UniProtKB/TrEMBL annotation:
The species this protein was found in: Tautonia plasticadhaerens
One of the protein's GO biological processes: DNA restriction-modification system
EC number(s) from the headed UniProt entry: 2.1.1.72
Database matches in InterPro entries: M_m6A_EcoRV (IPR012263), MeTrfase_D12 (IPR012327), SAM-dependent_MTases_sf (IPR029063)
Gene3D superfamilies: Vaccinia Virus protein VP39 (3.40.50.150)
Protein name (database record): DNA adenine methylase
Record keyword Ribosomal protein present: no
A GO MF label: S-adenosyl-L-methionine binding
């Protein structure tokens, strides 16, 4: 399966792993992504009869709401195209200052505009740009690496490609139920045969090199324990991502109907990664 473009670069997102995950998901009539983040898996899988996209992050869900709406989508395109034009000029290879000062200043200006913007559609367009060229999908700083693609900086190339895909992103969200809710409550509502749940919660602190990167979405160990207990009672099919851990393996590995899959990946979520390889695990119940 070829990896498809996704609208947002998001901290801890599954864009690089999406084809692998989609290939292991059970079949079902309906699909729900409960910790959406950048929604990389939804944008890489075929459309289902009923679909839910959920995340506690209000900025992320506001963006998807605006992207889904036909009128707001047109505003997002306009704002993104204007930002792309400005950044393309500043990032031109032959007119690039050594430390990318002007690009950084423009990024700061875009952030200030985003924070002050009252129009939700315009804010969504700015959010899209900031996330696409932000470091690790964050909006605190811009990526100004020396890597090039299509004769331009890699970050700019990725942004331009994403702008071209905006109509496809908008079309893919048609009919998707969007929500900003606690995952356990949503599971209680939609847990039935024929539903496939995919969960990518903030990973256990004990398995991560950094903590507090997910803001209000962070989960304590008791939160993870409660989630796992609920998943073990699900009637629907389930897939959940994580790093290897005694808690997850103790609850899920070997549990009736559950299968453990793993894949070695390059760590890219943290600037502090010394060992650049990590093992991603997907626990699946069909």
């Amino acid at each position: 399966m070829v990896k498809k473009p996704v609208p947002l670069k998001h901290y801890g997102g599954k864009a690089p792993l999406a084809p692998w995950i989609v290939g292991l998901l059970p079949e079902g009539r309906s699909y729900a992504e409960l910790f959406a983040g950048g929604a990389s898996v939804l944008f890489n899988r075929p459309k289902a009869g009923r679909e839910w996209l959920n995340d506690l992050d209000p900025e992320v869900m506001r963006f998807f709401e605006q992207l889904q709406d036909p009128g707001s989508f047109q505003v997002i395109r306009r704002v993104a195209d204007e930002a792309c034009s400005e950044l393309s000029h500043l990032w031109a290879p032959l007119d690039l200052d050594d430390d990318n000062t002007r690009v950084k200043e423009t990024y700061r200006h875009l952030k200030e505009r985003y924070k002050a913007e009252q129009d939700p559609s315009v804010a969504a367009g700015l959010f899209f740009v900031l996330k696409k060229i932000g470091r690790n999908g964050d909006t605190s700083s811009v990526v100004t690496s020396s890597r090039y693609r299509r004769s331009m900086p890699e970050s700019l190339s990725a942004l331009l490609s994403a702008c071209e895909e905006l109509p496809a992103f908008h079309a893919r969200l048609k009919g998707v139920h969007l929500s900003q809710r606690d995952a356990l409550g949503l599971i209680d509502e939609i847990d039935e045969e024929g539903v496939v749940l995919y969960l990518d919660p903030p990973y256990l602190h004990a398995t991560r090199r950094t903590v507090h990167n997910y803001g209000i979405r962070e989960m304590s160990e008791p939160d993870h324990e409660a989630l796992l207990r609920r998943l073990l009672r699900c009637r629907c099919s389930v897939a959940i991502s994580g790093y290897p851990s005694d808690l997850y393996d103790g609850c899920l590995t070997g549990a009736p109907g559950w299968v453990r899959h793993e894949k070695e990946v390059r760590c890219s979520s943290s600037n502090h990664c010394k060992d650049t390889r990590r093992t991603e695990v997907l626990w699946v119940k069909r």
